[in-house]
Design brief:
29% of the residues lie in helices and 20% in strands. The chain is an alpha/beta fold. The structure holds S-adenosylmethionine and iron/sulfur cluster.
């Protein structure tokens, strides 16, 4: 369907929504300290959207003018038959960008199928290159598998590929330059993300502490020439710098120090089909309930447009040691 004013999504603050993040599972093979507690209770399977339901929701959004979908989780690539979903999404008329965010542990098996399905953008999380630290940060992860996954993805030549690193004070702040060197050597983009206080997460009982983007920028700027990009390319929360000497772009995602709400262009759908209007607020409606009650595509579209009117102007995060939003990142789809 051609997009028209009547089919596009615009909220009360004139923000045009053209990007949806779909969480396909709340489960994960890792237990990253900043994302999950060690002991997690996951959703019962019947509460999680089926692959057919996910594909239908995606189709409705694309008809409403959404041009970019990101599949995330939890770890999306541990969901059984997830490549079927990618193939359906990749075939949606009007979709310009199909993205996935992954911890990389399953990429050796899946990279080629993702590329063949039409995935254009792949973000791989990597917070350190030290195997011991990697294990401590992810609690269960194996660095060798992730590095092999990154190489498998590189071999597929995805049009856009980015490393995502969450930097925590007193933990992996010393890894910033080696992670950047890793990205430079492979001509990959890299984004450093300020840790967000979501859910009750801690490391050995101590609250986690984010490292501000301007500190990361100063560390990198002392070693590398950087040129800031004039305007964010996708209206997203990352600001980008071109690093001298190669194609690598440095992204900084700063929910604390840079409020990016004014240009927010996105919605999230959780694994159980809750439409989240804002990561930092609890406004939501259940698309799953509507689907299971027999709503047509037109009714789903109307429910989405109505819900959008409740999208708040801004998110508000509490102090780092007092998480305000009691939802883990794996449940809200990163
Ligand atoms: N499992 C996949 C992965 O790790 O890439 C996809 C889901 S994960 C929730 C998506 C992104 O959110 C990852 O890059 C992860 O590092 C980031 N993330 C998780 N918890 C976070 C937090 N509390 N603050 C900031 N970023 C976080
Ligand atoms: Fe899993 Fe990703 Fe959360 Fe780590 S950040 S626990 S890999 S969902």
């Amino acid at each position: 369907m051609q997009e028209t004013a009547a089919t596009s999504l615009v909220d009360r603050f004139q923000r045009r929504i053209n990007y949806v993040r779909l969480s396909v599972t709340d489960r994960c093979d890792f237990r990253c300290t900043y994302c999950m507690a060690e002991d997690m209770t996951f959703l019962p399977r019947r509460d999680v959207l089926t692959l057919e339901e996910l594909a239908r929701i995606a189709r409705v959004f694309v008809r409403l003018g959404v041009a970019k979908l990101r599949v995330t989780g939890g770890e999306p690539l541990i969901r059984r038959d997830v490549c079927q979903l990618f193939r359906q999404l990749g075939a949606l008329d009007g979709l310009e960008e199909l993205a996935v965010t992954t911890n990389g542990s399953q990429l050796v098996q899946h990279a080629a199928a993702l590329r063949a399905a039409g995935v254009t953008t792949i973000n791989i999380s990597l917070d350190t290159l030290d195997p011991g630290k990697f294990r401590a940060l992810t609690r269960t992860g194996n660095l060798t598998d992730v590095l092999a996954g990154i190489e498998a993805a590189r071999a597929e030549n995805f049009p856009r590929m980015r490393i995502n690193s969450v930097i925590l004070r007193g933990n992996n702040e010393d890894d910033v330059l080696s992670l950047l060197d890793f990205a430079l050597a492979r001509e990959l983009d890299i984004a450093f993300i300020e840790e967000m206080p979501l859910g009750q997460v801690n490391l050995a009982g101590k609250p986690l502490e984010f490292v501000a983007s301007h500190d990361i920028l100063a560390t990198i700027g002392s070693r590398h020439g950087l040129r800031e990009e004039a305007a964010p390319r996708h209206g997203g929360p990352a600001r980008y710098w071109q690093v001298d000497g190669g194609p690598t772009r440095l992204g900084l995602i700063s929910p604390h120090s840079n409020n990016f709400c004014a240009s927010c262009n996105r919605l999230r759908v959780t694994a159980e089909g809750q439409l989240l209007l804002c990561l930092g607020n609890d406004h939501a409606i259940s698309l799953r309930d509507l689907l299971r009650d027999g709503a047509t595509d037109a009714e789903l579209g109307e429910a989405i447009r109505t819900a959008l009117m409740d999208k708040p102007e801004q998110h508000v995060f509490a102090q780092p040691d007092q998480p305000q939003i009691m939802r883990f990142m794996n449940a809200s789809g990163g």
